[in-house]
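Sharing a chain and its predicted structure for anyone who wants a worked example. Both blocks are below, sequence first, tokens second.
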Amino acid sequence: MYSLTLFSLGFWFCHNHHESLDSGHLAYAEEVDNASMLVQLLEPVSEKENTFQLVVSVLQYGNDSTAHPVSGRMILYLEKDSLAQGLSYGDRLLVRGEFREIRPPVNPHAFDYRMHLARKNIYHSAYVRSGHWMAVGENHGRLSMHLALGLRDRAMAVFQAHHLGDREFALISALLLGYREYLDEEMRREFAGAGAMHILCVSGLHVGIIFMVLKAIFSFLLRLPGGRYLQTACIILLIWLYAAITGFSPSVLRASVMFTFVAAGQSFSRKGTIYNTLAASAFVLLINDPFIIAHIGFQLSYLAVISIVSLQPWLERLWRPKQYLVKKAWSITTVSVAAQLATGPLAIHYFHQFPNYFVLTNLLVIPLATLIIYTALLTLVLSPLPYAGCFTGQVLTHLIRAMNGSVSFIEGLPHSTAENLYISFFDTIMIFLVLIGFFTYLMRGARRSLLFGLVIMLLLASSLSLRHFRNTQQKGVVVYHVNRGTASDFIHGRQAVFMACEHVVDSPRLMQFSLSANRLGRGVRALNPLPLNGDSLSLCRDVGLASHGPLIHFHGMSMFLLDDGYFVQLLDSCCTDRRTAPNGSCSPVPLIRVNYLLVTGNPRVDVPLLLRHLEPDRVIIDASNAPWRAAVMEEAFTEAGVDVWNIRHLGAYEVTW
């Protein structure tokens, strides 16, 4: 009965969490001419490469004559200017422009950003140019958030006053305050490659360190009557003050709730279990946001804590060194191994890489992170005292440089990171079941658990072997959605002939973002990129691809690549190359029949004239074509009775056989 009641309550909470079900939601607003929206900033402004990103709540929608109250959240991308940079949490804007639904993934196996935002009740976005918005109000929103962001800004100002370098300031802002806007791509890559990315995400480790410090500081209260409860109250109050200093970032909120329950549980004389405490904290978080269980941070945090609580004591008992430093190093090692066993499979599933030197990283980084947090907090406390604050600031600078140097050194070691790893969600679950079975047997001697683990391992091996066999037999073509670019994979087994324009080839980051997920999912390795001309394509006959100019043949499939140059070539050959009959008359060149016509490079195409010489089963218009020209071509081909796939609207085109 209790289980049924809890299940029903959970279903009710999940259903009501969808704000889009409200009849007054923005999704149901009727379109009007010269539309405008009154919005309010829900978060501080985030600076991107070409825009400022704002998460806003829509309050009104309409035009100059009518405006109706609406609800809903959306993302605004403002063109960069000084006015947009000066916006802050709680400001209200009047925005003119159209909004649109956030698109699903445009490339196969890509991260579903739309689903990620939908779990946060964000379903729409809009790009707004300078001059199409104006500020109409300030300092709205919750007072607690205003105070929290004010505390964070003051803390950052204290660190800036000590003239930290860019890398040092970026690290302390992320490590202590959870503000990651100053982290550049190189720092993110180094910390991810060394297995130290968890240091830059303020979470259970950081709050746990502060929890232990506060517990030691207020230990004297235990001598007083009721001192245990007074100590707990002080610890909880200061933990939430720290959460406020970080601006109530989601990861800190999770950790703060968790350690609030831990502190409260320890204050009672009745003996409890840490698992019940963790379950209670997770229950509170899920009541507030039922979809938080799908957030990667939530999953990794709770898996790491549960694994450390359950496995680390057993691992530590395997060896009992007597030397103090060796004992501490062994303790850190066991914590690292326990956490990595739980989070490693999930991290591989989501991020497709694994840090090989994670033990070495944690041996260096965790002590340094602890010292940095201690010193940073001391710097904030002593900042009003010129000499004392200056001294701690200098110590902090050297500690941060030591951490940056350590991470760079480990990331630069040979084979520091295993990359391009892929396991499905089903494989991830089976890996966890295998680990549970084996460690239950090792810790408790339960033979049934060993048998269970072996059976699941057999299923896992079968799943991996089946996918490997399927990948070796696959054949297919993928024309990717790459903005202002052309990229295609001709897949044969576990190899792919990669054909792309210079815009894509010269941008490794663009290739990583658009193409890598599909290649990982299919288990293929791409050959060196080939330019968009037929001469070099003829070199790929060993994988079944051959070409003659713009005409490509691939395992029974034919494709014609059409750009400005090839269109002129085609028309010239059709106009000048005539077959002469014995009577002296000329007959036209035979019609070229192909499975696919790939239109690329924004050519000016006379569709009726083209179709006199080329007969495609389907036309693919990729995203290198201008939107207006792609729309014109799509309409012309459709009127001629040819099936059209506009990649800019429909996403990547994929065919397998």
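Comments welcome. The domain at 19-141 is CATH 2.40.50.140 (OB fold (Dihydrolipoamide Acetyltransferase, E2P)).
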